[in-house]
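Quick bug: GPR180/TMEM145 transmembrane domain-containing protein output formatted oddly.
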Amino acid sequence: GDGLQLEYEMKLTNGQSFWTQHFSADEFGILETDITFLVIFTLVFLLSCYFAYNLKGRQLLHTTYKMFMTATGVEVLSLMFHCVYWGLYARDGVGNGSLKILGKLLFSVSFLVFLLMLILLGKGFTVTR
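Here's what came back:
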């Protein structure tokens, strides 16, 4: 009389690997690349903090170096949010859109601070003898 009432769920994946299961072919490697760059930028940021500590002790910590450290630190935060987003996406195929937007926003801030530093250095505004 009333027909069939069905509830179903389809899950289409690219294999069973965590690194490829929910990613399309053009998204393969994004998570691995972001993790690699997170490690690299974290090392760069820690090295810059070490040298900043030494420069501050000698009273040679310059504004441009502070700008570089800011850009690097914000880039580390951006990559961290991107890694969390892509990790969630790899786990369930959905992810959290606000983490992706926050990561992109922080990347833009990092890029703008670094670009401002380069423009100031190019103009000679902050160069001391």
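Actually, after a second look the formatting is fine. The helical segments are 30-57, 63-92, 97-123. Closing.
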